[in-house]
Specification:
about 230 residues, alpha/beta, Rossmann fold, two-stranded antiparallel ribbon
């Protein structure tokens, strides 16, 4: 796997990191099902008749998508605002992913620019990076488009936006993500994809989805980036 990563990194000009998973677990201290339940309450307060499947939905982003499906932009904005506020609170108790810091720093030292491309709000991502003294290593943050969940990954738009921000062709970028939507978005954008399988069951699913490389620890990517840095110094 390290050889595959080494070859892959030798051909890319930028690293694009998903946030929740590869960088941190944003809802580690403020569980996602709790946030989702709070967003469902916002829907109820807005007069939405909430069906049972939505009432028990554990994913805040899915609640936002369902809010958008009402076709009422006022309701979508209300849920978006509540989610943004919850994410900003969540980053205070977010759990850093092991070796994520090393990946970000090593990429910079190897001369490879880094962007974060996330379905979480840009304010939450920026706050986390600042709190963990990583902002100086990240050249661009592309977060969730406000009240427009259809533009989240797997839509390739945020990935393409990040590539443009780094002045790189999509084919010269690698996206590191931990979900099928990351893989699908990267493939649609024309970027290489390293799938971070942070749970054993994801490994085969990511391989079947066509990820270029599957890793089970961000440490593998950090090591490959350190090797790339050393090769550049020789």
């Amino acid at each position: 796997m390290s050889a595959d990563l080494g070859r892959l990194l030798g051909e890319v000009g930028a690293v694009l990191l998903d946030f929740d998973g590869p960088v941190c677990s944003i809802f580690a201290g403020y569980p996602a099902p709790q946030v989702a339940a709070e967003l469902v309450d916002v829907l109820r307060q807005s007069g939405v008749d909430v069906p049972p499947d939505l009432a028990s939905e554990p994913d805040p982003l899915e609640v936002l998508r369902r809010a958008s499906a009402t076709g009422d932009q006022g309701i979508t904005r209300a849920v978006e605002d509540a989610l943004c506020a919850a994410e900003r609170r969540a980053v205070d108790a977010a759990e850093p992913t092991p070796y994520a810091r090393e990946v970000i720093v090593a990429a910079g030292q190897a001369g490879i620019p880094v962007a974060v491309v996330s379905n979480n709000s840009p304010g939450a991502v920026t706050a986390y990076l600042a709190a963990h003294r990583l902002a100086g290593y990240v050249s661009s943050v592309v977060g969730r488009a406000y009240a427009d969940p259809g533009r989240m990954k797997p839509n390739p738009e945020p990935i393409l936006q990040a590539a443009r921000a780094l002045n790189q062709l999509p084919a010269r970028c690698v996206l590191v993500g931990d979900s099928l939507s990351d893989i699908q978005g990267a493939q649609a954008a024309g970027t290489t994809v390293v799938a971070y399988a942070n749970r054993p069951l994801k490994v085969e699913a990511f391989r079947a989805a066509g990820a270029d490389v599957v890793i089970t620890s961000m440490g593998a990517l950090a090591s490959a980036l350190l090797d790339a840095e050393l090769d550049g110094m020789r």
